[in-house]
């Protein structure tokens, strides 16, 4: 009996440790002209990834993909109301003013998602 309880506890801990985006905690808007990815593949790949760092407490977040689709993350409070998120304490209410969301790319063959950040120009070069 103790062996089964231990297995159940380890299973629960591992599911929490490997945080993923819950399947019904986002909406997927696919353009009709998209090629290489189906809506089902997109939803599966998004749910395998961890996009929780982009979710806000009270506001939905739109993630843009250069593949031709968008993923709209429900707010943390909406997802909690649906029973998809257990604890909303770690979510921020807004992004910092200077923060810009990246544009993402999903590799159709591998199912991997990449975030492309715009380079920051920290130095001001003046012409001579």
Overall form: globular
**Structural category:** alpha+beta
The average pLDDT value, as a whole number, equals 77
Number of domains: 1
Spatial arrangement of strands, main beta sheet: 1-3-2
Main pleated-sheet profile: 3 strands, antiparallel
**Spans of 5+ residues with little confidence (pLDDT < 50)?**
2-18, 124-128
What string gives the helices and strands in order? HEHEEHEE
What oligomeric state do these chains adopt? single chain
Question: What do you see in this structure?
Answer:
With 128 residues, the protein is an alpha+beta fold. The chain has one domain (20-116). 25% of the residues lie in helices and 18% in strands. The protein contains three helices and five strands. The protein has a three-stranded antiparallel β-sheet with strand order 1-3-2, covered by helices on one side. It has a two-stranded antiparallel sheet with strand order 4-5. A hairpin with a 3-residue loop joins strand 2 and strand 3 (69-73). The N and C termini lie far apart (79 Å). Mean pLDDT is 77; it is low at 2-18 and 124-128.
Summarize the topology:
Layout: H1 2-17, E1 26-30, H2 39-48, E2 61-65, E3 69-73, H3 76-81, E4 103-106, E5 113-116
Would you kindly provide a brief summary of this structure?
The chain is an alpha+beta fold and 128 residues long. 25% of the residues lie in helices and 18% in strands.
